[in-house]
Design brief:
about 60 residues; elongated
Length: about 60
């Protein structure tokens, strides 16, 4: 995992809302593409963590009902 991915994963884990997680994820993708980091999207640890964080928010919302 690159330093860039480590920072992106940390930001995902620190997100307090789904909206914040999405904003951080979009920013990471933009930076990755702009700097041409050549990280395969299917193997990106930020993308994986983002999907897990969103799932946690969805589970929490469901548990409150």
């Amino acid at each position: 995992m690159t330093k860039f991915e480590q920072i992106g994963v940390e930001r995902q884990l620190e997100s307090e809302t789904k909206r914040e997680a999405l904003k951080n994820f979009q920013h990471s993708c933009d930076v990755c593409c702009y700097r041409r980091m050549r990280i395969d999207c299917n193997k990106c640890s930020i993308a994986f963590t983002h999907s897990e964080v969103i799932a946690c928010f969805d589970d929490y919302k469901t548990a409150l009902k």
